[in-house]
Amino acid sequence: MSKRSNSKALTKQSWGVLKQHRYLLKFPLVGFLVALVPMALAAAAGIGAAIAQDNENTPQVVIFGALLVLFMFITALIGNVFAGGLVTAVSRELQGRPSSFGDGVSSAMGHLGTLSKWSFIQLVVSFIISRIQGSGGGGAASGILRSLLAATAGILWSLVTFLVMPVLMNEDTKVVASIKRSAELLKGRWGDQIKGRVRIGGFLIFVIVIPAIIALIAGVALSISGGISLAVGVPLIVLGVFGFGLALLLAQAVQGVFATVLYLYAVNGTAPEGFTEEQLAGAITPK
């Protein structure tokens, strides 16, 4: 099976799990709605920090900076709680044990301490990668090199930690142990291909994101024109933003299912129902 067809099949089958158990879509949706408040507060704190920096008001920069970090942490924690709930529910369903939205959330709340530490580590790593990339200063060559280093670090981190959530929720390990376990499972099942990347199809890009981009561009163009065009432009902008949000939620749900499937395959050595060993063996491919 070619890489592209295998990727498409895995995405379709992961999506099939969501369609079969529709309540699974509640996890990213409710998580997003709950996170709206800390996301808005984080944005406000970021704006406040920027204004304070422009005014050279160091105390306010420190205060707003601390609030920004706090609200970003809360946002990440909320996302991980509902991601953990999704993984728990998917794991149970794929192993023939019926679950529910409440069961998943309850299980995730039982791991709140570990999820908090994982959220903190994620923020720290994201900060380090952003510092590697820099702000674009130092010339074109330096900028390109820093961007490549940051991109490489981001890809390696996302791959090594791809199974962290299933490990954390299923094996009750601590964060560092979960990261090591994730890397070990990937290395043990896929060997040297750990240097590659997880392949999963991008049908969401074509089905939702591209139409959303078209709607946004058309909406902005019409809104700038003013007059009657504004009445059409604003709804198109709203539709485009909604499309992006929907694509993000669906992508998170599909990735949660996919990570859980790979985890069960890596641990048990057999493909969960609806998937084949050939497909999962080719899920991580060399660069």
Short description:
This protein has 287 residues and is mainly α. Helices cover 80% and strands 1% of the residues.
Can you tell me about this structure?
By secondary structure, the chain is mainly α. The chain has one domain (3-285). Helix content is 80%, strand content 1%. It has helices at 3-20, 26-54, 58-94, 101-109, 112-133, 140-160, 164-171, 175-190, 203-225, 228-268, 277-281, and strands at residues 197-198, 284-285. Strands 1-2 form a two-stranded antiparallel sheet. α3 (58-94) packs across α7 (164-171). The protein is globular.
Tags for this entry?
single chain, 287 residues, mainly alpha, two-stranded antiparallel ribbon, 2 strands, 80% helix, globular
